[in-house]
Design brief:
- This protein is α+β, with helices and mostly antiparallel strands.
- Among the domains are: about 140 residues, Sandwich (Jelly Rolls), CATH 2.60.120; about 220 residues, no CATH class.
- It is built from 32 helices and 13 strands.
- β2 and β3 form a beta hairpin.
- α4 crosses α7 and α12 runs parallel beside α16.
- The chain is elongated.
């Protein structure tokens, strides 16, 4: 996924990519005593070369977002990114009372909408009060003439005045039907918000009436009762404050609830306190609310005291956390910053950044950085990014000199499987693109994979640790590969919805971007975007991810059957002119077709990409090829849509020419390799200095051959540094930075095998 200029809402629309399929292979096990005698080894003393360490240098990252999975579960805990999209519409439906109608109140008869739309005055009031809460709750769905008949301003004024009168003797429960009156008024504001043309405007008459109603209700002594009976109606009345946009007038009510609250309150009373969050968060959108808080600094201190006094209740998704986070809005408004700054500084430094208090502290930190930018020294938070890395990413694992994993929580087996999946993907990738090593001036010699435990933790921490947008499913930081010590990094999270199976979301897709950028695309990502290259960039990532994992790409095959795009049109794909279907499904189809049907054109195209000749590549696609393949592509799509997409043309390395049948070279193969059960077939290479990657693959034949590698002596099941032991004969080993001189490998016959092809390549 690319680029940094991609709009967040566009990224949000992108669909899920295939999840990572991790292979179970043992990697780099320590060598043991050799179990067999393969014969004399070639003369020479194999050199051992130390793997280079990752440089600490870092260039400004070029960030490439990953689409968020639609299967990502909703977490009850708040996220900093949620603050960017506050809801200002009235709250829909009953939050407390109607859900408890069967327990708290008498059951209601079937709800007849005409009973509300056809009555007014005292008759309407009586109808509302006699209806069950569950019946009144259905009125939130009214539209058209029904909405106007029930909720025009005159009807609302009538019910508001009735609430005023009823509240004067409120008994602390719903025996006088105050709850139905409150819920009716809430429904009216909600329906009018979304159906203003049908319902008509609300003006001063209703404003006066609703203030009288709320004044009367909150003045009633029994609204202070600490009971579920009172809490059911009180919770709805608190929400009504926001529905009527009277947030500024009733800051005193909010303060009273926050000041009185203790963790021992019953559930309905706690819900009433929780509903003050809506009053507060939406209040910050109202100028009069800002003025009220500016005139009364005790609102801020009361809210802060509510947090510190009840801090033992904090678990991340609790009422204290959710209300406490709203204190961050103080620093979002210049008039309130003098109040907010000392409060936020105290809370951020008072509570840990990780654990139960993490959602509170990280959200408040977000406000200080995004809404009071450039003042980290004032808050004492300038060192937070560096502090967070070891606190959050407690796992630090090196796969090899070119690949490192920083994780929040991964087992040894999960780490080994992830390393194997990526290392073996190298060979698969190079076989497809047929490169001759990295492009010029590319210093992205190593990749750091960062794996958070789930999407929530990624969103909570990655924005601060890596200064990236987190409204996505992950982020690839390519950086500037021309800068020495540049650190390429894929910031990801576990696909928690697939547990107990372990998968890192988009792992193989994003690793392809790293490989493609290093071996196919000259310069940084922005350089490659000077002409439309997205069909290749995203199409190849999809192709490699699905093909390498052996996954059937259902969505792409379904799109092929539709025949929506011509190939020449897909060559024009950019992030700006395409949706996720065209970017990923159709990118995959275009790349697969070109690789299978016109590999020579792909070779020519990649030669230009690797040289940074973007205009030359564009000429090849749009002028040399142009529309000439469109008809054939359309015919291929029909076959692919019927699930007959074909396969890549077979390209074999030439046969090895050395007289010793055990000897292999840079790019050669030996056919008809065989061994009986329990025995070996041995091989070796004499490598020059400076080899970056050695790849050994086996394929074809019968039986079951396992592949072992060793740099110091003959490779056996008891003496090896790497192995590939899948069922059958499809084995691959990619050795990074092998030593110069003789290195060894063997095929061990778990089951007698024959007719196997062994191929070695290195660059």
């Amino acid at each position: 996924m690319r680029p940094s200029s991609m709009a967040k809402d566009a990224a949000r629309r992108l669909p899920a990519l295939g999840t990572a399929l991790l292979l179970s292979l043992g990697l780099f096990a320590p060598a043991a005593q050799a179990a067999g005698t393969p014969g004399a080894a070639p003369a020479g003393n194999p050199a051992t070369s130390a793997a280079p360490s990752a440089s600490a240098g870092k260039a400004a990252p070029r960030t490439i977002p990953v689409p968020k999975s639609p299967d990502t579960p909703k977490d009850a805990r708040p996220l900093a990114s949620d603050q960017q999209a506050k809801a200002t519409a009235p709250t829909a439906g009953s939050s407390v009372g109607a859900a408890k109608a069967a327990r708290q109140f008498s059951a209601a008869a079937a709800c007849d909408v005409s009973a509300f739309t056809g009555k007014s005055g005292a008759a309407l009031v009586q109808q509302v009060k006699s209806a069950g809460l569950d019946c009144v709750n259905t009125l939130f769905q009214l539209k058209g003439n029904d909405a106007k008949g029930a909720f025009n301003e005159a009807q609302m004024v009538t019910v508001a005045n009735a609430l005023r009168d009823t509240a004067a003797t409120y008994p602390g429960d719903n025996s006088t039907s105050a709850g139905q009156l409150v819920l009716f008024l809430r429904a009216g504001y909600y329906v009018q918000w979304y159906n203003k043309d049908a319902v008509g405007p609300y003006g001063d008459s209703l404003k006066t009436a609703i203030r009288g109603a709320l004044d009367s209700f909150f003045a009633a002594p029994r609204t202070r009762d600490i009971s579920d009976a009172n809490g059911d109606t009180l919770a709805e009345a608190v929400t009504l404050i926001d529905s009527a946009q009277e947030n500024a007038r009733y800051t005193g009510v909010v303060k009273r609830l926050l000041n009185d609250y203790t963790g021992s309150w019953p559930a309905a009373m706690t819900a009433a306190v929780a509903n003050t969050e809506t009053v507060i968060v939406n209040g910050f959108d109202l100028p009069e609310f800002i003025s009220a808080l500016q005139a009364d600094p005790t609102f801020a201190t009361t809210t802060a005291s509510f947090v510190t006094r009840n801090s033992s209740l904090i678990n991340g998704g609790d009422v204290v956390t959710k209300i406490g986070i709203q204190l961050g809005n103080l620093v979002a408004h210049e008039e309130l910053r003098p109040q907010g700054r000392p409060i936020l500084k105290d809370l951020i430094n008072r509570y840990p950044l990780v654990g139960n208090t993490g959602p509170l502290t990280m959200n408040l930190l977000w406000f200080t950085e995004k809404k009071d930018e450039g003042n980290c020294s004032l808050y004492g938070t300038c060192d937070v990014p560096a502090k967070l890395v070891p606190l959050v990413l407690t796992v630090d694992h090196t796969c090899n000199a070119n690949l490192r994993i920083r994780a929040q929580d991964m087992t040894a087996q999960q780490l080994a499987d992830t390393c194997t999946s990526l290392i073996n993907q190298d060979a698969f990738f190079h076989k497809i693109v047929k490169d001759n090593g990295p492009v010029a001036n590319d210093n992205n010699t190593n990749l750091e994979v960062v794996a958070f435990d789930d999407y929530y933790n990624y969103s909570l921490y990655a924005w601060e640790m890596y200064k990236i947008d987190v409204d996505n499913g992950g982020m690839y930081e390519e950086g500037n590969p021309a800068v020495a010590g540049n650190q390429a990094r894929f910031i990801a999270h576990e696909a928690s919805w697939l547990r107990p199976q372990f998968q890192i979301w988009n792992l193989n897709h994003e690793y392809t971007h790293y490989l493609d950028g290093r071996y196919d695309m000259y310069g940084d990502f922005e350089a490659g975007m000077t002409t439309p290259t997205i069909w290749w960039v995203e199409g190849l990532a999809e192709y490699v991810s699905y093909s390498y994992r052996g996954e059937h790409y259902d969505a792409a095959v379904a799109q092929a059957a539709k025949g929506t795009y011509a190939l020449s049109t897909l060559f024009d794909t950019t992030y700006d002119n395409s949706d996720s279907t065209r970017t990923y499904n159709w990118g995959y189809l275009a790349v697969r077709y070109m690789l299978q049907s016109h590999p020579q054109d792909v070779d020519a195209l990649l030669a230009k990409y690797r040289a940074g000749d973007w205009n030359g590549a564009r000429t090849l696609l749009k002028t040399t090829i142009g529309t000439s393949y469109d008809a054939d592509f359309a015919a291929w799509l029909k076959q692919c849509g019927a699930d007959n997409c074909g396969s890549l043309p077979t390209t074999q390395a030439p046969l090895c020419t050395a007289a010793d049948t055990r000897q292999f070279d840079k790019n050669c193969r030996r056919d008809n390799v065989a061994a009986t059960t329990g025995n070996y077939n041995y091989g070796y290479l004499n490598l020059p200095a400076g080899v970056k990657q050695l790849t050994i693959t086996t394929s074809g034949g019968t039986g079951n051959a396992d592949l072992y590698y060793n740099s110091g002596s003959w490779a056996t099941t008891g003496a090896y540094q790497a192995k590939s032991t899948t069922s059958g004969n499809g084995e691959t080993l990619t050795i990074t930075n092998p030593p110069a001189g003789y290195v060894f490998f063997s095929l061990y016959a778990q089951q007698g095998f024959g007719g196997v092809t062994v191929t070695t390549t290195y660059n």
